[in-house]
Amino acid sequence: MKKKDWFTDWFNTPYYHTLYKHRNDIDAQLFMKNITAFLSLPKTTHILDLPCGKGRHSVFLNSLGYKVTGGDLAENSIKFAQQFENESLQFRVHDMRKPFNNKYDAVFNLFTSFGYFEDDNEDLLILENIKKGLKENGLFVFDFLNAIKVKNTLVKEEVKKVEDITFYIKREIKDGFILKNISFFADGKNHSYTERVKFLDISKMKDYFNKVGFTITEIFGDYKLNKFDSENSDRLIFVAK
Ligand SMILES: C[S@@+](CC[C@H](N)C(=O)[O-])C[C@H]1O[C@@H](n2cnc3c(N)ncnc32)[C@H](O)[C@@H]1O
Fold it and tell me: 222: how many CB neighbours lie within 10 A of its CB?
């Protein structure tokens, strides 16, 4: 039997949301406020937030007046997000490796929601799906980790207590992937998950975007929209058409 992909399991657990609790709504709201203002997006814009997780960006974007659709593979996250639905805010289970049924004015791929797959062709397939899902002159906002900074500042071992769970975290860069092993005891059992995100630096990402025919119009290095700097920036953010 084929082993389930790590991202199908881990993101669907409550423990993932506990560990990343600090990545809260404040981060999400600051970024969304800045990027929508920078892009001068009209209120008629229909945004696809993919993958949306539990909907923290989607809900805020909708509160700013935008029509938003959120899609994610994790059923539990979508079920949670659906409590916030209204006429202009919808959530759906969707695998971003599959094409979309609709066309959008903008697609947002936020908070390192890319690079999970072994094969580069799967990464390209996702970008192609996004491109096909955009209306003419549609915009793509892509927010990924800065691989160079991750490499230069890698903390190999860390112990983190969040609520009543102690997470033992080990990080390494191996075979072109940034690996983060997370083990902990919770609900009467030992658990262990490994996040695997491809080591995609700015040149590799630019190469991907060129291959699928995206034109990159802006490159930012953080949620305040400062310029990208490969040594110091926390994020790699592209705006593309
Ligand atoms: C790091 S989280 C970020 C979620 C959200 N953007 C946020 O900032 O809260 C990555 C998300 O990607 C989703 N995901 C992973 N693989 C996916 C796929 N093939 N299709 C759709 N969503 C996927 C996971 O379920 C998870 O919610």
Answer: 20
3-class secondary structure, 223:
coil
Instruction: Tell me which H or E stretch contains 15.
Output: helix 14-19
Q: What is the pLDDT along the chain (241 residues), one digit of tens a residue?
A: 456 788 888 988 999 999 988 777 888 899 999 999 999 999 999 999 999 999 999 999 999 999 999 999 999 999 999 999 999 999 999 999 999 889 999 999 999 999 999 999 999 999 999 999 999 999 999 999 999 999 999 999 999 999 999 999 999 999 999 999 999 999 999 999 999 999 999 999 999 999 999 999 999 999 999 999 999 999 999 999 9
Q: Is the CB of 52 under 6 A from ligand 1?
A: yes
* Residue 70 CB less than 6 A away from ligand 1: no
How many residues does this entry show for the chain? 241
Distance 236 CA to ligand 1 centre (A): 17
Neighbours of 118 (CB within 10 A): 13
Contact indicator for 79, 58 with CB cutoff of 8 Å: no
β 157-162/165-174 pair status: antiparallel
Domains and CATH numbers, the chain: 6-147+200-240 (3.40.50.150), 150-195 (no CATH)
